Amino acid sequence: MKLSHMNAHELKALLATKEVSCKEIMSSIFDEIDKREYDVAAYIHIRDKKELFTEAEKIDNRRLKADNIGILDGLPISIKDNICTKAIPTTCASKMLENFVPPYDATIIKKIRQADGIIIGKTNLDEFAMGSSTEHSAFKITKNPHNTDYVPGGTSGGACASVAANECIMAIGSDTGGSIRQPASFCGVTGLKPTYGRVSRFGLVAYGSSLDQIGTVTKNVKDTALLLQVIAGVDSLDATSVDESVPNYCDLLSLNGKLTVGIPKEFFAEGLDHEVENAVKNCISLLEKDGHNVIEISIPHTPYAVPAYYITACSEASSNLARYDGVKYGYRATDTKNLMDMYLKTRGSGFGAEVKRRIMLGTYTLSAGYYDAFYLKAAKVRTLIAQDFAKAFELCDIIISPVAPTAAYKIGEKADDPLAMYLGDIYSVIANLTGLPAISVPCGWTTSRLPIGVQLTTRALNEPLLLSAAYRLEQLLATVA
Ligand code: GLN
After folding, report:
1. Order of strands, edge to edge, in the sheet holding 398-402?
2. Checking DSSP bridges between strand 260-264 and strand 293-297, what pairing results, if any?
């Protein structure tokens, strides 16, 4: 098998016995980039090849001298382009930040570098992480590596496509309302949104601050545990990060005992594609045959999740994006008459249509007289949904559901219908509204050979249980594949 097609653990084993070098892995990744990137368009920016080879060589030399190497072992990792990387452009796929080069690294970037991961480049997204298909990037449309007529999902479409197309070994994405899990399911890779606060967001460009979370995209659950191990933990630079010790996720992967798995009846309703439903039901019966107890549960406030999410996310976005005014940094319109004209022209031409739509929606829902009716009400709905989950977790350990109602759709199919696109987020926004950890695991294929994912969710900070359940399910799926 080509090195680029292997997962992180397979490569780590070969590196440990010195059967392969980081340089060889890097070169195999570049072979794949040369072959696939033109069609897939996963990256906005790939770092200088020579620099990357020098970094790989340095790690190889340290290994020869038997120096300590960090647990990422020189593996090439891609980063979503809304996470700040010192001296590497960070654009958020927006004209507004087209030429922005951050003067600092996000905390997770520092951690990846300390663990000897090699940052290979920055991946494409919907502008400012607003979208579900990676069609709303100001620069390019990323394609689904399994069929380039289809979207890769979004907004971490570039991250998931880069892993699925073997143009890196693992990736970092962000998830405000499903942006890691939904593209992971569309691209047939594993995507984790950790518990809100489990991973520092210092250096993640803010979208909806009460929802945003950084997470992982990998080729399997074991690699998810490895990458989460590196990025998890409290950070004095992020006041929302949780001061709880980080368990050894890699050592806790095997499942002890049997689970009670909850199936929310509201999730298997109208609008769910039959092939997706069958694939998820197959996972449920595999778990049942494996001796786990499967029960029906209820999340009664499910119908309010999408509106509550879009009101919350847009409100927070309208505030977070106020900083792009052409004054401090980023794009500034030229030929302007006065300060107000400069603001208007900068924001009018620097943001794309979807971002402007959300800023307008969010400004409205936060405005005097409407705040109570919209933002506050959405906050109350969030509490009700969180209570639904608290009740459900009195009965079960894990909740199983689809990630999205359909598999990947054709490029352009929903681009002009924002509402249809928003409704596709029904199963994924809930984990952000509640802060709970959730993972998308590949679980099947449609008849037109597009991947399908299944979602597992558990209690806050119980990533060890989430990962061990996902690991078990992955093994069960492999036995029937
Ligand atoms: N599709 C959702 C949105 O457009 C999720 C985005 C995300 O998670 N960044 O808001």
Report:
1. 43-46, 118-123, 76-80, 170-174, 214-218, 190-193, 438-445, 451-457, 398-402, 260-264, 293-297
2. parallel
Domains in the chain (CATH in brackets) are: 1-481 (3.90.1300.10)
Residue that has been written with the tokens 């996963």 in this structure? 42
Q: Which residue has the least CA distance to atom 2 on ligand 1?
A: 177
Q: How far apart are the C-alpha atoms of 102 and 85, rounded to whole Å?
A: 6
Q: For residue 156, which atom of ligand 1 is closest to its CA?
A: 9
Q: Which pLDDT tens digit goes with each residue over 281-316?
A: 999 999 999 999 999 999 999 999 999 999 999 999
Torsional class of 317: left (φ above 0), alpha (ψ -120 to 50), beta (otherwise)? alpha
DSSP character at residue 105: -
pTM exceeding 0.85: yes
121 close to 391: Cβ distance less than 8 angstroms: no
Query: Which atom of ligand 1 sits closest to the CA of residue 129?
Result: 9
Q: Which of 344, 323, 346 is nearest to 334 (CA)?
A: 346
> 447 CA to middle of ligand 1, Å?
27
Query: Which residues lie across from 193 on neighbouring strands?
Result: 438
Q: Which tens digit of pLDDT belongs to each residue from 112-163?
A: 999 999 999 999 999 999 999 999 999 999 999 999 999 999 999 999 999 9
